[in-house]
Amino acid sequence: MQDRGEILLHRLRGIVGDAGVLSDTAEMAAYGTDWRDMFHGRPLCVVCPATTGEVAQAVAACATLGEGIVPQGGNTGLAGGATPDDSGTQVIISLDRMNAIRRIDPIGMTVEVEAGAILQTVKDAVADKNRLLPISLAAEGSAQIGGLIATNAGGVDVLRYGMTRALVLGLEVVLPDGQILRHLRHLRKDNAGYDLKQLFIGSEGSLGIVTAAVLRLVPQVRHRATAMIAVPNISAAIRLYERAQTEMGEALSAFELISGAGLDLVAEHMGRSAPIQGADWCLLIEAGSSLSGLREACETLLETAFNEGWATDGVLAESEAQADALWALRESLTEAEAKAGGAIKHDISVPITAIDGFLRDAGDMLADIAPQARLNVFGHLGDGNLHYNVMNVTEGDAGRVNAGVHDVITRHSGSISAEHGLGQYRVSEWARLTDPVERALSRQLKDTLDVHGVMNPGKVVPIMREAHD
Ligand code: FAD
Ligand code: 2HG
Ligand code: ZN
What we know:
InterPro entries: FAD-bd_oxidored_4_C (IPR004113), FAD-bd_PCMH (IPR016166), FAD-bd_PCMH-like_sf (IPR036318), FAD-bd_PCMH_sub1 (IPR016167), FAD-bd_PCMH_sub2 (IPR016169), FAD-linked_Oxase-like_C (IPR016164), FAD-oxidored/transferase_4 (IPR051264), Oxid_FAD_bind_N (IPR006094)
Keywords: FAD, Flavoprotein
Pfam family, one: FAD_binding_4
Helix content: 25-40%
Low-confidence stretches: 465-469
Family: Belongs to the FAD-binding oxidoreductase/transferase type 4 family.
Radius of gyration: 23 Å
Number of domains: 4
Mean pLDDT: 96
Bound molecules: flavin-adenine dinucleotide, (2R)-2-hydroxypentanedioic acid, zinc ion
CATH topology of the largest domain: Uridine Diphospho-n-acetylenolpyruvylglucosamine Reductase, domain 3
Largest sheet: 7 strands, antiparallel
Protein name: FAD-binding oxidoreductase
Strand order of the largest sheet: 15-12-14-13-17-18-16
Distance between the termini: 41 Å
Number of helices: 16
């Protein structure tokens, strides 16, 4: 008699064809491990559907047999959400083959794409029509639209344009029982009933598989001013931020913090050296507009910053190439950290005025429990979102450090996941720190939409039922 796995493989091959199902261990290896090489799973197979109909049939086949499904996009996620468990029974559904850009509307300023389209490819396509899809992150050459929506990705342009959620106008989603929710609307205004698409944005594949989306575009930025500024401390950085908002308003698109230690990592492991040396903290600021005059505004801002003592050094990019070189430093931080041995990652946010206090308290906590730790702190200061990455921690101390940072963040009324999601990396900490009412409601939502518990099990909502705790 055939076992369930063999029956499922047979059915899946019937749906997508033999070539669309990978079950060879070597072929599946890249899909079974996350970008950080931190989570290692063993899938039954990897299914690569070419149409929404095929995704729906594959999901229904898994649901009928009660086997877990793990949706996977570009596999650049930093929370282990796209990695299966090691049971050898879960099915990865990869969106790689569903990558068409279906329609660009430069007047309505929308783009309709399939979930497997790579962010950079979509950005290039809309740029040809003088439009911008304003999501920018270092993984944009691999991250897919479906993955960005599923994680409600942030990045360096959130300050001006919001998280991915703010750009989603319509979605097509395959539900955990194989039904298709078709809501591919190109509408900016649509109050007809519950806004169901919001349920799937940021739910990390735990409620359904995004197969296509309509995204909002903005006019392409024609002029930009980019500056790297050394600041003496965080409170000076915050004062500078307040002034930048006043001077540049909606043109301000990025206000990023990088530590001197982070720039040293980038120099050592990526061979890129910064124009500013020896500072504890640096900012990378960018403003963009269809209109000119930004450079002058940026010069005035820098002048004020020096006069007020908020800046100790600064570089205003003279050319696009120099601006790109400044961004390359910022975008190399994650890879440099990985090359240096990795870190315990904390993707925290607090109200921006609480950043200084958070850094002080977290530093005190670390000095107590892991004095040898090294920090790589950087991120989206303007959003109150820092990547508080702790390096050089022994395996034995890792859990205490992780919980310690999250306890500090909780005391500052912050979030333990500002933009990367919970995946499997943070799910137990979320359960530990989240209000019981919020936990129970999340569980109820998951159980209602995913009756058989097959959609990305163990991600976002813990696998154990919590009804009685
Ligand atoms: P995957 O890694 O494949 O999946 C991520 C999650 O989404 C998983 O839970 C998966 O099950 C689910 N999923 C994927 N596709 C679908 C789908 N079609 N339908 C339903 N669920 C799906 N993130 C930020 O927010 N800001 C940053 O600045 C940022 N910078 C990064 C820089 C680097 C160098 C790296 C490696 C990662 C970075 N990330 C950042 C994290 C990552 O790029 C984002 O989370 C991205 O959105 C993941 O997209 P993906 O296609 O790779 O998704
Ligand atoms: C970034 O801001 C990403 O560059 C990655 O969110 C953060 O590596 C990290 O911890
Ligand atoms: Zn980030």
